[in-house]
Specification:
Strand content: under 5%
Helix content: over 70%
Structural class: mainly alpha
Order of helices and strands: HHHHH
CATH superfamily: Flagellar protein FliS
Number of strands: 0
Number of domains: 1
Number of helices: 5
CATH architecture: Up-down Bundle
Radius of gyration: 17 Å
Distance between the termini: 44 Å
Length: 142
Amino acid sequence: MAINKNSVQAYKKTSVRTASQGKIIVMLYDEAVRQLDVAADLLSDGTKQLDRVNNAIVKAQDIVTELMVSLDMEGGGEIAQNLFRLYLYFNEQLMDGNIKKDIAPVKQVRKLMAELRDAWKQIENTQVTSAPTTRSGINIAG
């Protein structure tokens, strides 16, 4: 049985539209980690499909940039500033890894992003369990 592609896309859009801020952040991290896994796997296999490596790294960079611009720099204080600097570092490392087709910076950023993803997941789970009647989401400022 074939799955209607439009139905799958509609489901994904609905999932994003109805998600809390914390869930969206976790989803962004999940996708960035997935893209970095694709790039790292291709690089470790010695692929000649460098366009696929480039596309995966650029997608991860786009996600990092989205996380960066969504920070509340006024309300987030030191945490938002630290995350901003960390996201800048991620993008610098990914750009370097992409240019040189070097797996080391890709793996380093992937490791750090997975750790941040796990932290956001814990925060999101805490928010959901501590406020079962109303879900106010998470302040992206940190």
